[in-house]
């Protein structure tokens, strides 16, 4: 099950049944090793203001068989 988790300044995607807790490190779909901070967890008073990692988004779509063509991508 893919899920989004904010960590280290971006919303990264991961494959797993549970969201990581503050202080835990995970490997995002983009390949980055990132650590979750308390401020990254909305249930603990954090916010989801950081931008989505574009590499995680592309990998999520690729794994779901929904790769976007260049014409469908937002170039902004």
UniProtKB/TrEMBL annotation:
It holds the Pfam family zf-HC3. Gene3D superfamilies: Malonyl-[acyl-carrier protein] O-methyltransferase, zinc-finger motif. InterPro entries: Zf-HC3. This is Zinc finger protein. It comes from Amycolatopsis albidoflavus.
